[in-house]
Amino acid sequence: MNNTCEIFAHRGSSIDHPENTMAAFQAAYEIGADGIEFDVQLTKDLVPVVIHDETLDRTTTGYGLVSDHTKEQLKTLDAGTWFDTQYADESIPTLEEVLVWASDKFIKLNIELKGHVNQRESLIQKVIPMIQTYQLERHVILSSFDHVCIKEVKKLAPEMEAAAIVTAALHEPLTYLRSLGVEGYHYMSPLLLKEEAGVLIDAGVHIRPYTVNEEDMLRRYIQWGCAGIFTDHPKLALTIRDEK
Question: What's the total number of domains in the chain?
Fold first, then answer.
């Protein structure tokens, strides 16, 4: 198997822990995941916090928009009980909490930038200096479905890897990615044919499919030579990758 393919735990080890919580991140680290993937957006008082949905309803005891609440308000919510009552003490992490946790660990952080376009500039201005403060520039990938945002990231922090996320196959993806100046292409599995993937890999693009949970698909993408894979099952993916 291709042992250079990095396994990213999607929202942490989310198959057996509440997604985007410190418990899920710690579990992914303990099983040996190469990286964790998580989502960041801004609170009402412009604090970057880790939560996937724009609304609180699905994964917390709160309701309404994340951006309508302050950090202090969000910190009163339970972000674990929806998954299992044993995680009742889990809260919504701030980005800073995750960076502090990661600062003494050998683990990559794929930070997906989310939120409304009118918060784009504020989000970038908050996230990039925070990463630099903890000297994690070389351990971070900044990704987004907002390609305007990700192009701006590369202007402001060219030393950080950035990636465009897509949900549809692109025409001439290499040309497009080079126009953005990004290194990474995070595509919804299975949008690429093997030969298309090969062209991108040969050109030095870091391709990483998401969210890959089936054993046969994990094995396929590892064999292709993908730079990484996002999965809810990091333990399974690591077992397959490390097969002799």
Answer: 1
